Amino acid sequence: MYDLIVIGGGPAGITAAAIALNQRMETLIIAAQWGGQTTYAMQLEDMEGREVVTGEPVLDAFRRQLDYLGFVRRFETVTEVHPEGDAFCVCTSDGDRFETQALVIATGAKPQRLDAPGEVRFSGRGLSYSATTHASLFLGKDVAVVGNGRRAQWAAASLARKSHKVYLVAPEPLVPTPLAGKFATMQNVEVLAGGQVTEVCGDRFVEGVTVAMPDGATRDLPVKGVFVKLRRTPNSDLVREWIDCDAQGHILVDIHCATSWRGAFAAGDVTFVSEQAMVHIGEGAKAAISAQHHLLMLKN
Question: Contact 234/245 with Cβ under 8 angstroms?
Fold first, then answer.
């Protein structure tokens, strides 16, 4: 039986597994692949001398440690997780079955993509999924934020303090929040209600987006940055029947990353935290340390 099994190969899961190993816990991390929101690199034409600290060097070091210790990782898909007495059972698509005394769930969230031409091509070349990470690179520039929910609204409001012009392209009516009614008073924010991005345009980097409006008109927005802030669905289906989640499916945790089930912890996008990789690194470390404390209590 393992001391700890970590499910998920993103920033939170990688960090949790590495920290647990450093604490001499018998650890296994199971993930379909290394991934999550670990690619935060951004290239722009005029970013010489400007740097964004993303936490990627730390994650690289943790990944190398896990790759070197091949016996601590399994690249498989987890199909079932359930408690068994004071322990947990984890089953995979390859037919493997593992038991553990503690569990860290770091399964992330599934983002809704634009599904528009140019999205993949310009990802990291002006198109970003994290305003928290990249907003500072667009000082004085025109940018577009795509989305209608809380995350999109906060991104637009934050960018309005840095960028020259912010277009909030809202495919659906804005979700009622304290910010929703304030955009009308922000001189450099324009809300395109009902707009649908049909193409991200440019040569080597983002140079604009094409937006189809509800009245049939087309808007060509000359922007240098595009921030995609559409709905994200937490990957909590594996545990939702026995661990408390909110209405959207985020796993509910306390300040120690503990869930409603003793011995089960969660970190990263599957919980309700910032999308920034450095926050996920911290939450993954916290979850591993909390799991260690749980094990110490069991042994004493």
Answer: yes
Tens digits of residue pLDDT in 98-131: 999 999 999 999 888 999 999 999 999 999 988 8
Element of type H or E holding 21? helix 11-22
Beta-carbon contacts of residue 37 (< 8 Å; ≥ 6 apart): 10, 11, 108, 129, 130, 269, 275, 277, 280
Cβ distance 3 to 262 under 8 Å?
Answer: no
pLDDT for residue 36 = 66
∠ at Cα 244 (242, 247), nearest 5°? 125
pTM of structure: 0.86
Q: By residue range, what is the domain housing residue 134?
A: 113-228
CB–CB of 99/1 below 8 Å? yes
**Calpha distance 143→262 (Å, rounded):** 45
In 3D space, the residue among 160, 151, 121, 125 whose CA is nearest the CA of residue 228 turns out to be 151
- What is the total count of domains within the chain? 2
Model confidence over 190-205: pLDDT tens digits? 999 999 999 999 999 9
Tokens of 24: 């001499």
Residue 187: give its domain's CATH number.
Answer: 3.50.50.60
Name the pairing type of β-strands 27-31 and 2-7.
parallel
Q: Residue 274: which of 243, 232, 225, 240 has the closest Cα?
A: 232
pLDDT for the residue 49: 47
Return the axis-axis angle of helices 277-299 and 56-68, rounded to nearest 10°.
50
Do 221 and 238 lie in one domain? The reply is no
**Residue 123: beta bridge partners?**
127
Strand 142-146 with 165-170, pairing: parallel
Strands 109-111 and 142-146: unpaired
> Looking at this protein, which amino acid is placed at residue 160?
A
